[in-house]
Write a structure and sequence with these properties.
ten-stranded antiparallel sheet, globular
Length: about 180
């Protein structure tokens, strides 16, 4: 794969706090039986600028938080669902290997900067009201972590498709996905 972000991550060792800009599709519901969401089916995307951790090991991260809360370290993660590792614990692919994902971990007390786009333009106030009403937002809550006793401050994973990363800054180096920069400009 010829992608500077991919190559940088393939050469990575250990873990790091990174700054990232990425684009993703906004999932929205139809708005009930009336299907009154006028943006449903439109090209609605969000650009997110944030900081995350890269290179953590999920089971260790959960057990570290669990130990702080209860003294236990008995969390065992299950098998991946629908994905497999290319380079553990950084890069994954879906089962047919058509997409590559980077596994990030959300950090507490970091505020994301989010910009919404509708059909290639910045969302208007009216469009933002619709997005706020109908966007499907994942809580990141893990029942498996809760079963182990970690109900507060859960470890939240964010698998981001590598092609959707606009810019990644790690270890004081900036890596850009030029194709995405052109699409979002």
């Amino acid at each position: 794969m010829e992608n500077t972000i991919y190559n940088a991550i393939m050469g990575m060792k250990g873990n790091s706090i990174v700054s990232i800009s990425y684009i993703s599709n906004v999932r929205m519901n139809k708005g009930g039986r009336q299907c009154d969401n006028v943006l449903y089916g439109e090209n609605v995307k969000k650009i997110v600028v944030t900081q995350m951790q890269l290179g953590n090991i999920y089971e260790n991260s959960v057990n570290n938080r669990l130990e702080k809360e209860s003294g236990n370290r008995d969390f065992v993660s299950g098998a991946l669902k629908g994905k497999k590792w290319i380079k553990y614990p950084y890069l994954l692919t879906n089962m047919d290997e058509s997409k590559v994902y980077v596994r990030f971990y959300k950090m507490r007390n970091v505020t994301d900067i989010v910009t919404y786009m509708v059909n290639g333009h910045f969302a208007t106030e009216e469009e933002m009201a619709i997005i706020n009403k109908y966007e499907i937002v994942s809580s990141g809550y893990s029942a498996k972590q809760a079963e182990s006793g970690l109900t507060e401050n859960q470890v939240i994973i964010k698998d981001i498709q590598i092609d959707n990363i606009i810019k990644l800054t790690m270890n004081e180096k900036v890596y850009k996905n030029e194709e995405k920069i052109v699409q979002t400009a």
